[in-house]
Specification:
alpha+beta; Multidrug efflux transporter AcrB transmembrane fold; 2 domains; five-stranded mixed sheet; four-stranded antiparallel sheet; 12 helices; 49% helix; 16% strand
């Protein structure tokens, strides 16, 4: 038993060390992952974009599907707590909190994600040129594309020039094979790139064309715009290869457009605007002060009422807080005020488990059992009540998350996620951390130190059966 407790203590120390490093790392980086706190639109502001479909025959289901694709794309950009909802029959509203590159985000939203390889008829086509292809012979041209300062509108003109033969069909793109990569060699050295693969007839057509056109250019076209026109050095086996880009930002934009699915309908940015924080840094600071005050008051109550067990529970509560914040950084979870409320509520539930355990411990101790036996019975007898209450809260949080996910209410989702994670972590700290601390501390105290447990059993029987079986 003693060795098991020491192993548990070692596990607690390791977990505490990792989470403290994550929370207080000056580089805000853990194993190559960005672990900065992310705040929601209500706390730090962001941008709001109104998208409109240019397809007059688009159905409500197609618009809803497009909204789902957009939500996956913005999540791929690392933007949490996004609001993506359908407005009317042909518009989609997107709110992006704290985006660092609004231009990139809006371009990712608007792109249809249609990838084509075309035969440029032996000519090099400059990057960025909008071309006509057999897959899209009449692409629409946009003007005023600054997503923050103005409104992107649709013109009635289409690019002129030849219609280039498409070697591939965008529908044959294998989205599971789309991955970030780096090109190897070449005159410019290693460059950020996106790996891709086609399937079906497109894979066969691409392999056949490249095998017959070595030394000639082939243009890569995304949403009717030329990405690059590389010279074919060798055949592309199984229709796979890489798309070279100039910057990691360009790579990420193309990656998200391709990986998370093609939009079923074309969209243009009808209006976009900056959104200031509705609550802001003052509310964040106030919430932090309130959270710290709550922790201190709860810790003082536990220490004054339960003494040594209360002190150990307060220490476990500090570990619970550190673990929760580390998980929020790692996932990551975007914090809004409802999310912070879910976390604070879970603190109360974590204390509730300790109260049940300590009350049962006192009861067993007053019956004449020694501290160690009273401790084990306290955990054993209180576990069913702790389990049932926490499971019911977990079920409630799952229902809230599903409701928020179905109706696009991100505020409810944020509350449900932080509440769920808080319950899971609180079970770990109450059952494992607090129990380990008490097991290691109990043998060090004899009967004259019973006051450390807040117990006076001078008027109680000196001995009772030590197990439930003997009591029967």
């Amino acid at each position: 038993m003693r060795s098991r407790d020491l192993y548990s203590l070692l596990l607690i120390v390791i977990v505490a060390g990792v989470v403290l490093f994550i929370n207080f790392s000056p580089s805000q980086n853990f194993l190559g992952r960005d672990v900065r706190f992310r705040l929601g639109l209500d706390l730090q502001g962001g941008i709001q974009v109104l998208l409109r479909t240019t397809n007059t025959t688009a159905t409500k289901d197609e618009v809803q599907t497009a909204a789902g694709v957009i939500e996956r794309r913005v999540n791929g950009l690392g933007v949490g707590e996004t609001v993506v909802q359908v407005a009317g029959n042909d518009r989609i509203i997107v709110e992006l909190p704290g985006v660092e590159n609004p231009d990139q985000a809006v371009e990712t939203l608007r792109g249809t994600g249609r990838l084509e390889f075309i035969d440029p008829q032996g000519q090099y086509i400059p990057t960025g040129t909008v071309v006509r292809t057999t897959g899209d012979p009449n692409p629409t041209k946009l003007t005023n594309t600054n997503p923050v300062s103005g409104t992107a509108t649709l013109t009635n003109t289409v690019p002129t020039g030849p219609i280039y033969q498409s070697i591939t069909d965008g529908k044959d793109l294998d989205t599971g094979a789309v991955q970030p990569a780096f090109s190897q060699g070449g005159t410019l050295g290693s460059r950020p790139a996106v790996a891709f693969a086609f399937k079906g007839n497109s894979a066969l057509g691409l392999e056949k064309f490249t095998a017959a056109s070595v030394g000639k250019p082939m243009c890569i076209v995304l949403d009717s715009q030329v990405v690059s026109c590389p010279v074919i050095n060798a055949a592309l086996p199984n229709g796979s290869g890489v798309i070279e880009t100039n910057t990691p930002a360009d790579r990420d934009r193309i990656l998200n457009e391709l990986k998370y699915g093609a939009l079923p309908i074309p969209l243009v940015v009808e209006k976009s605007r900056l959104v200031t924080a509705t609550l802001g840094q003052v509310s964040v600071n106030t919430s932090i002060v309130a959270g710290i005050a709550g922790l201190v008051v709860v810790a003082l109550f536990m220490i004054l009422f339960y003494r040594l067990p209360g002190f150990l529970a307060a220490l476990a509560l500090m570990i619970y807080t550190a673990i929760s914040f580390a998980i929020y950084r790692l996932i990551p979870i975007t914090l809004t005020l409802p999310g912070i409320a879910g976390f604070i509520l879970s603190i109360g539930l974590a204390v509730d488990a300790n109260v049940l355990i300590f009350a049962r411990l006192r009861e067993e101790y007053r019956r004449g059992r020694d501290i160690r036996t009273a401790l084990e019975l306290g955990f054993e007898e209180s576990w069913p009540a702790i389990r049932d209450s926490n499971v019911s809260t977990i079920i409630t949080s799952i229902v809230l998350f599903l409701f928020g996910n179905s109706f696009g209410v991100s505020i409810i989702k944020g509350f449900a996620i932080t509440l769920f994670l808080g319950i899971v972590v609180s079970l770990f700290t109450a059952i494992v951390v607090t129990r380990t601390f008490l097991r290691l501390a109990a043998p060090m105290f004899s009967e004259q130190y019973a006051w450390l447990f807040g117990i006076d059993r001078r008027n109680t029987p000196s001995a009772e059966p030590t197990t439930p079986a003997e009591a029967m």
